[in-house]
Every structure is written in C-alpha cells, then in structure tokens.
Amino acid sequence: EQRQETHGVGENLVLVSNRQPYRHHYEGDGSDGDGGRSIAVDNPVGGLTAGLDPVMQRLDGTWVAWGDGEADFAVADEDDQVAVPPENPEYTLQRVRLSEDEVRGYYDGYANQALWPLCHTDTCRVRFEGDHWRHYREVNQRFADGVLEHAQGGGTVWFQDYHFALAPRMVKTAEPDAFLMHFYHIPWPAPDVFRICPQRTELLDGLLGNDLLGFHLPRYGTLFMECVEEFLPEATVDWGAGEVHYEDHVTTVRSFPLGVDADDIRQKSEDADGMFEARFRHEHGIGEDVTLALGVDRLDYTKGIPQRLEILEHLFETRPSLRGELTYVQKGCGTRERVPAYQRLRDRIEDEIDRLNERFGTDDWQPIVYTTKMYDHDALCGIYRFSDLALVSPLRDGMNLVAKEYVASQVDDDGVLLLSPLAGAYEELSDGALEFDPYDTAAGADAIERALEMDERERHSRMRTMRRRVHEADLPTWLDDVLETAGQVRATRLEGH
Ligand code: F6P
To answer: What pLDDT is recorded for position 199?
Structure first.
C-alpha cells in the first residue's frame, strides 16, 4: 500500500545513488549441461534502495546508479538502460559503467577512505590521495552526464549520499532550471574536523548546487552551515530560514530523520513462529533457556564492535554467574572489503571473538556466536523478534536503522534496546532505550546487567514508547516529508523567478 504523494516534484524524477536497486548476476557455470551461465537478479542489501524502489515504481522516472557487474550490462540496452522491476517494468534503471581504476579511486578511495571517516570524525583513518580525488571528480562528472541525459529542460533530480558531493554543481551549471535535492545519509563533521580536508571548498561548492539539502538531524545541518560560514566566505548563511545564499542561488538545509518500513517489519516478525526460533537456536548451538543478545552490523569501524566485545568481556569477567546464561550473537556483514581498514577490522573482530570464546566458553555454552550468513529480511525480522536484547554501539552513526528495525519487530514488547548516544537514532529513542556508551566499558556492562534484570512492566512500557515513535516516523512518512518540503521549496523558487 503506497501512501506517498509526490507534491509536484515527483514527475520524471531522476534519482541518483551509488548502489542500484536491482543487481543482475551470473548463476551456474554451465557445467550442468545447459551450455552457459544464466542471469539472475536480486536486490542489494540496504534499506535505502528497498525504500525508494516502490516510489520510483509509481513515478515512472529514471534511477541512475553504478552497475557493478558484467551481467548488469549484459541485460541492458546499448545505452546501459534496463527496465525494472524485471518481472513488471515500471521505471528505467540507467547503469553507469565504471572502470576498475575508477572504482578504486572514487568508491574505495575518496568516498570510503576520505569522506566516510572524515564525516564520522575519525580523523586518524582519513586518507587523501590525489588519484582518489581525481577519480571522485571524474565519476561525479560521469553521473552528472548520465543525469543530464534525463533532466533536459528541468525536472527534479534527487542525489543520495556522500558519493555525489560534486555532481549537483555540475548538473546545476549545465541545467539551471532543474530542481536539485540531495539527502546526505551520514553525519556532517564540525568545522575543526572538516578543516583537515584539502578539498573542503570544492565539496561545499558542489553541495550548494542543490536547491534542497537534507540530513538526518538538525545538528548535522547546523554543522554544515557552520562549515560554509567558515570556509566559503562568499556565501551567506540565513540561520533563521535555514538557507545558504551563494552565487545567486539559494540552498535550503533541512533535517529528515530516516525511518524504517515499520508495518512491513511488524508483519514479518509476526510471521516468525516459535519453530523459527528453535531452528535458529539449534543451528547455532544456543540452549533454549539461554538469554540471547543480538548485534547486527556491517563490519564497519564506526559500529563500535570491538568496544562492544570489550564490554562483554568485562561483563563475563565481573559477573561469572552470567556465564552459561547469556549468549551474544554477532551477525556481521562484510563491507568495503578492499579497503585495508575494513580488512584489519574484520580480522580483529574474528580474533577477539575466538579469544573470548576460548576464555569463557564451556563444552555446552559459547559466550559469542559469530555469523556472516546472509539472512533474508523475513528471517532477520524473526531473529530480531526473539532476541531478548539488542546491542547497538556505534562510535558515530548518521542514524542507525538496525535500532529502529529491532524496535519495529518487538511485536510482543518484550525486548530491551541498548543504544549508543552517538547514533542519530538515539535522539528519537532515548525515552525507551538504555544508554549504551561504547567508550565506557564498565557502564556498558552495568547497562547489560540492568537490561537482564528489568521487570516485564518496565520492558513493555519502554518498548511501547519506542514502537510508537518508530511507527509514527516510518519510511513512508519520511518520504512524504522530504517530497512535501521539496514541493514547497520548488514553488517558492518558481515564484521568485
Ligand atoms: O550509511 C551510508 C550507506 O551508504 C548506506 O546508505 C548503505 O546502506 C551503507 O552505507 C552501505 O555502504 P556500501 O554501499 O558502501 O556497501
């Protein structure tokens, strides 16, 4: 059931994201006698592409994204376009083909070794390399060119995330009548951190090609405007209106906290029965009376996984009675694996888990279960539902949708969410979650103990408060809010002309 209105901005929308909503890939190797490989399609993991796909299906627009495999182009036409969804085409997916060097420079390099750590204020991990920047600029130009093929004579373009900080300026220069909007899915850093970036002026200039720039939290928008004031003296910030005036153009800066599809998650977790839980416990050797704590993360250094393991070690060390009683399941998902910092992190997490299991484990109990198995969303909602605790401990996170998914799946109101105050989601969930500070090991262990001892009344009351919030501020509401604001901003701009 679609709830979104398009508020006049949706027609012929061109959406731009690094990840594509559908990915084609080869299956089999022909060894079964059919003489060749067949092509299958799946949806890359990620709430964003899943959430925006239904909107695009209604709008009949174009989605421009990186096509990252041979099969993606084998099914596309000579312009690298393919109609999707494959079984019932509703809109065009325009795939952008990138060379190996471009991917290394733009994606592995500038996006994920410069901007990602910079925006998460992890300055020790930031790397600026000339080649990375050159590729980032070139790839932004490639995407801008792709957009311009579909946005002739105006139209609306919606950029997603930190991969495209330069493309808005490129598109605006070529097509001043296009309405450009951008949602930045990660935090924006303070001026003192952004200062270390040699390309700070170009990045700000690029983003200010947009008419509307959105962040998860008001705080990130404020930091962005502070950076503009400090590093782009030609620009003027109108703090009252939340606008930046720069080179005869106005960029409106707003916050839109991203939500999850709470109704869908509720339905999926309601469908997960006791058999599902029993199978999961059996599969991982977790006894039926053992309390289950869960962590679900991309294996990213911003998620605070080593810090969480340290807290668990302290917990089992200082509360020996919990040994045999509590198992922590870490579901990890490999990510950006060609970047050395991610490879090191993965090794470190796996070594630490082995060490803790060695230290505390017994013949019939393991303190930590580690799995990288890919569960589909239905199964994941089931796992969330029967997990007694969820441990979410990012060192910094734009929003963190795992926290919201866990809450939405608590149809029995029974679980406890332990949430880092450094996750954007904490702003909305602090009434019900227990604070879980990844930097304070002893306090983290206390929080887990408190969660384990919490009585049913308090658990239910906290969870109900959070569920209400997650349902009120869900994904369709977010989309509606973004599109309604865009409609208003666009109408104001048109009046001004
Ligand atoms: O949080 C930012 C983000 O780009 C998400 O939109 C996405 O789910 C995640 O990072 C995954 O990153 P990647 O596309 O690099 O695998």
So the answer is: 98
Task: Place 31 in a pLDDT band, splitting at 50, 70 and 90.
Answer: low
pLDDT of residue 1: 44
Cα(193) to centroid of ligand 1, in Å?
Answer: 22
Give ipTM to 2 decimals: 0.96
| Both structure tokens of 477 | 């509401």
How far is ligand 1, taken at its centre, from the CA of residue 94, in Å? 19
CB 63 within 8 A of CB 9: no
Ligand 1 first shell, C-beta below 6 A? 18-19, 46, 48, 161, 185-186, 335-336, 398
**Within 10 A of 194 (CB to CB), how many other CB atoms are there?**
21
Query: Where do we find the tokens 């209400």?
Result: 468
Query: What DSSP character marks residue 304?
Result: -
Closest CA to 297 of 179, 406, 440: 406
Band of pLDDT at residue 493, cut at 50, 70 and 90: confident
Cα radius of gyration rounded to whole Å, the chain: 23
> Nearest residue CA, atom 11 of ligand 1?
46
Question: Contact 156/125 with Cβ under 8 angstroms?
Answer: no
Cα separation, 104 vs 100, whole angstroms: 6
d(CA 121, CA 189): 6
HSE value, Cβ hemisphere, 13 Å, CA-based, for 490: 22
The model carries a pTM of 0.95
Per-residue pLDDT, averaged over 392-421, amounts to: 97
Report the C-alpha gap between 476 and 471 in whole angstroms. Answer: 10
pLDDT computed for residue 11 by the predictor? 72
Alpha helices by DSSP H, listed for 296-411, are: 305-318, 340-360, 377-386, 401-408
